[in-house]
Amino acid sequence: MTTPFTYPAPRSTRNNFKCPNCNQALIPQTEARTFACSNNHSFDSAKEGYLNLLVVQNKRSRQPGDSDEMIRSRQRFLSAGYYHDLTDAIAQCIEKSAIGFNQTLFDIGCGEGHYMQQLREAATHASTDLQLVGMDISKFAVRLAAKRNLNARLVVDSAFNIPLFENRIDTALSVFSPISPQETSRVLKPSGQLIMVGPGEQHLSGLTELIYEKNTPHRGNYDTLEATDYFALQQQIEVKKTITVEGAAILDLLTMTPYYWHCTPEQQIALQQLDRLETPIHFYLNIYKNMKGKAPQTGA
Ligand SMILES: C[S@@+](CC[C@H](N)C(=O)[O-])C[C@H]1O[C@@H](n2cnc3c(N)ncnc32)[C@H](O)[C@@H]1O
Ligand SMILES: [Zn+2]
Fold first, then answer.
1. Closest ligand to the CA of 26
2. Can you give the residue ranges of every domain in the chain?
3. Does pTM top 0.90 for this prediction?
4. How far is the CA of 134 from the centre of ligand 2 (A)?
5. Domain 58-290: what homologous superfamily?
6. Which residues are placed with Cβ below 5 angstroms of ligand 2, an ion?
7. Which-ligand-closest: CA of 197?
């Protein structure tokens, strides 16, 4: 009796990015830097090592997302450590979760990669195996994130059309970035969590009071999320302190926020001439449980 020949099981492609044209897995090809699906749609990764899957039909503008100038200002400001307490709070949230840093974390609207870098450093320090996936709709942002060499899988695409298969992610992180509850829930494992970071009532009031007559705190992206039942709030952590921003970092702070667009040229010059600016920084970290498979889901 002959034993029937069995082919080796195909390597799973479920962790690969999905083709934006046909949703098949994108497989690395023998040609350097090319990824293609079984329907021969192919994409070359950039020399920095990220994939751009934002196809023309899904773009609303020629250069979607934050501009190069906004992103570079944010990179300088964040790397000066002004939001250190927030970074620490995010890392602690992950470290204290049941699986600690041994997990796959997906940074939605990752910008230039500041938070992924801090998490990579914390995970390495704790000798754990953190898999990082980062996505932003701005090519400028993802390019800078790629230059950090974080051993992260990086992609340019939209939070409203995530190029990942279902049930891949343990933690989705959104720091001041737009999210789709439905798409986020889909790519999260049923046991997954979402950490949403948004502004508290006092956030940057030292800056906004120099621009607006009346300070109207903004709600971040919580409303979008709470209008649906894809997620259930488990915990809220508040981070609040006063910082003194010095010199050129004041203009960086302005440029990295939407307040930049509301500021008159005179106000901009006045801010540029300040030596120091004292302001509260105030954040909420909302930790949500994925409700996929646990309750009827409505809305998007
Ligand atoms: C306020 S910034 C925050 C960036 C980063 N999370 C941080 O805190 O440093 C918002 C980010 O969301 C990105 N973004 C805007 N719309 C997006 C979308 N539809 N999908 C993915 N990213 C988006 C922007 O390009 C920008 O990098
Ligand atoms: Zn395809």
1. 2
2. 1-44, 58-290
3. yes
4. 21
5. Vaccinia Virus protein VP39 (3.40.50.150)
6. 19, 21-22, 24, 37, 39, 41
7. 1
